[in-house]
Amino acid sequence: MKLGTILRAAGALALVAMAWSPGAADAQQRLKFAHVYETNEPYHTEAVWAAQEIQRRTNNRFAIDVHAASALGNEQQINQALPLGTIDMIYTGAAFAGASFPPIAISNAPYMFRDFDHWKAYSESPLFQELAGGYEQRTRNKILALTYYGARHTTANKAIMTPADMRGMKLRVPQAPLYLMYARAVGANATPIAFAEVYLALQNGTVDGQENPLPTIQAKKFFEVQTHINLTGHIYESLVTVVAPPLWGRLTPADRQIFEAVFKEAAGRATAAIRASEQTLPDWFRQQGKTVTTPNVAAFIEAARPLHNDPAAGAGWTRDHYDRLQALGRRGS
Predict the structure, then answer these.
(1) 171-184: b or e for each residue (b if 16 or more CB lie within 10 Å)?
(2) Angstrom distance (rounded) from CA 239 to CA 218
(3) Which end of the chain is more exposed for a tag (fewer CB within 10 A), N or C?
């Protein structure tokens, strides 16, 4: 055989070997998913699962790096990065999405939901789909899923049994306007502080207390610097999974279906984990030497409801939105 023939054959074999080598299927697009939660929380672990699942289902055409614990910025900053395309996907609270489209923040008004089942009915309702569509039309950001963040409770260095116990209290709230409604209802002094800075603010007395779901209070170790876990259950919180317009615009219809299906499944898995955790954590906090109180929730509801449709208190939805949400989950609705 001539030398040229041998070299051509060797070259062809080399190309075949490259085509079948492990590196040949490397991801063509590396994406950034950002959030402010800890790596041990279900939101993060399910985002990591979703990233792996999308990579598998797209034959390694997408690799998603999940950046936790405010590594790419606080919640306001990662929201602002979406239209720029510097971050491709985020988790964000519905109240933060409400900064761009106020009606979608309806789920964050205090005592808007009766219980978890009411929240669940909302998450599966045409009303939520309508509000998500309005948000997309306003921002061009695409909401793929809604995840249960948990019922928010109030921690402090004292027992809180009625709204009067919170009057004048310096209460840390997230940096989104609607969270002020809870503080206003109970007469607390709202102090907006970024999530990553809350532990230190509690420790040094910048604020007297904060409010978050039990799994978050555990994960962020807020219980280390607060003596009382007061089960106010004032907001059944939601996170939305949002895709930036530049990414969503370049995905094929088939890839869009994969992203949406995977992130909806991840949301369901995280929701189940958070709900299960909420059932056992009161006893866990007691074991850590914390005082867990059951306040007079009826008094809190009475204080909050007059603000539900008050634009001056932050209500950015219509009365129709409110009535439809309240009807969800009731017999005959």
Answers:
(1) bbbbebbbbbbbbb
(2) 18
(3) N
Q: How many CA atoms lie within 13 A of 310 on its CB side?
A: 15
Beta strand residue intervals within the chain, DSSP E? 29-34, 62-67, 89-93, 142-156, 170-173, 189-192, 209-213, 228-243, 291-293
Query: Using CA atoms, how far apart are residues 299 and 62, in angstroms rounded to an integer?
Result: 51
Percent of the chain topping pLDDT 70: 91
pLDDT in tens, 170-192: 999 999 999 999 999 999 999 99
DSSP 242: E
- Distance CA(135)–CA(277), nearest Å, equals 30
Alpha-carbon span 278 to 97, nearest angstrom = 25
Please count the residues of the chain.
333
Distance CA 116, CA 121 (A): 9
- Is 11 in a helix, a strand, or coil? helix
Those residues with Cβ within 8 angstroms of residue 317's Cβ, 6 or more apart along the chain or in another chain: 102, 103, 105, 106, 309
Cα separation, 244 vs 263, whole angstroms: 14
How many Cα atoms are found within 13 Å in the side-chain-facing hemisphere of 179? 25
* Residue 330: Cβ within 10 Å count: 10
Dist CA 156 CA 210 (whole Å): 7
Question: Of 105, 103, 118, which is closest to residue 326 (Cα–Cα)?
Answer: 118
SS3 265: helix
pTM summary value: 0.90
Closest CA to 97 of 68, 75, 116, 67: 75
- State the Cα–Cα distance between residues 25 and 18, nearest whole angstrom: 10
